Amino acid sequence: MGGPCRLKAEAEKLATKAPDCTDNFQVRPFNFDGQEWQSVEQCYQAQKFLDATFKEKLRLMEKGSGESDSQHGMRVWSEGQRGRDLRPDWEAVKVEMMYRANLAKYLQHGDLQADLLATGDAQLDGAASTKWVMKSGKTVGWSLWNGLIQTRIREELKPVSAQDSDLLESLRKQFEDYLVRQGGNQLPIPGAGSEEMPLQEE
């Protein structure tokens, strides 16, 4: 689900709206796994399914005249609930998939990288969104993971000398632990992971 993250500086009591780049519904075309997508949400919804025809139907859902990014995102999300041929390991790979779709968008848009980096070290929390129950019985949701995804990518986009290595290691471990605890991936996960990111200059 979409909606910009919330931004909270350490000295502030109330969170403010983070840049639009932190919204999965933002329409900014990018390439992922050899195809063009209009938004992170569109790409994410399509990756849930093995049926190539249905995936292509989702991919071809372009923003209509007079339609807002949010309206387009909700239309894509709604269509994504209709698919049948779900990846057998989807509950395990969904968080990594959302991360990789976001990463692809940022790597292809320098202005969006600048917008995210301009948030400094402020806490990024995801907007209110859907939740699910893990195999452990713990309830988690996108309000948590969207914030972690944006925080991780923000740190990875910094020059190596400016990165908080402890924070980055902790974030990457959370993603790895989620994947493992949910049973791991049974099929390849498309898209570039952080290990394939170009090295930042010192």
From TrEMBL:
NADAR domain: residues covered: 28-124
SUPFAM superfamilies in the cross-refs: YbiA-like
InterPro entries: NADAR, YbiA-like_sf
Origin superkingdom: Eukaryota
Protein name: NADAR domain-containing protein
Organism: Polarella glacialis (Dinoflagellate)
